[in-house]
């Protein structure tokens, strides 16, 4: 690495990392507001709330890295152009692409960092976040919690209309439905008007039980009481098993298993491709930011900065549209949907870089 490259990287360091940190703080603030809205903070320790926020930071970093490199590149390059430093470098016979090698190195490092965080840090942090969220929910259940609550209580899926907290280890339940898939075509449904949970025991008063085999209702029962001696798996109480909570290898296994079972795996395929597309966007954002910094350097650094930021917002909106509309509706193959904004912005970036020379 030559002195020129080190100089450019030093110019990038402060705006890039500052921009990344500021955007991450904005996401963290939003997460904090969400925690205050969802939990009774009088019942949850402040340290637990802080951990809930911090455990979400790795997920947001996957999105803030591309934004950070875009803002940093725009600010650094616009200063080099505006003060004539890049002009002096080019007059010495150095091409723009070579002069800005430090930008490309930084962008690639950010891309690798985004991938590694998404693959190794985010899944573990997501699982711990789900576990802590479950514990916080149990601790902070309001005296009357009016909501349709859904969670997993293996082997049951549980639907509860109302949960009331009574004491530290007891919950009063109203309008409860439990669904158990006991076999390939066997389903049991328990419904009770009231119930309670105390120390790992679920008790339902006067439940009605339906048993299905295939499309046939084979049994209806009305026992006086049903008790389930099953401890709550706090780690899985509200753990949603979202794709960001698993590694790429686990995502691939889910896709293979889902295809064998004849399930729709479009969402999983889009999530898998997004794991690759987001890191690549770091390099694309750096290239486009350089182009914009050159084009608007005579106006002001602020214009190039705002255009880079707007470019990033447009990218993420197109990304969301691609994975929520184009992919699910099969207007494009699911494996290509996350790459649509990457391809469009990459074409614009390469054309812009070519014209700079």
Q: Could you characterize the architecture of this molecule?
A:
This protein has 357 residues and is α+β, with helices and mostly antiparallel strands. The protein has two domains: 3-138 and 257-356, no CATH class; 155-232, no CATH class. The chain has eleven helices and eight strands. It has helices at residues 3-38, 46-54, 57-82, 85-91, 96-99, 101-140, 234-237, 248-260, 266-295, 301-326, 339-356; strands at 145-153, 156-165, 170-183, 186-198, 201-205, 208-213, 216-221, 225-229. Strands 1, 2, 3, 4, 5, 6, 7 and 8 form an eight-stranded antiparallel sheet that branches. A hairpin with a 2-residue loop joins β3 and β4. The longest helix has 40 residues, at 101-140. It is elongated and about 90 Å long. The relative contact order is 0.12. Mean pLDDT is 80; it is low at 142-146 and 233-240.
Summarize the structure.
Helices cover 60% and strands 19% of the residues.
- What is the CA-based Rg, rounded? 26 Å
Proportion of residues in extended strands = 15-25%
What would you call the shape?
Answer: elongated
Distance between the termini: 23 Å
Residue stretches low in confidence (pLDDT < 50, at least 5 long) are: 142-146, 233-240
The biggest beta sheet is recorded as: 8 strands, antiparallel
Secondary structure category: alpha+beta
Please tell me the overall pLDDT. Answer: 80
Could you spell the SSE succession in H and E letters? HHHHHHEEEEEEEEHHHHH
Count of DSSP strands? 8
In percent, how helical is the residue content?
55-70%
The domain tally reads: 2
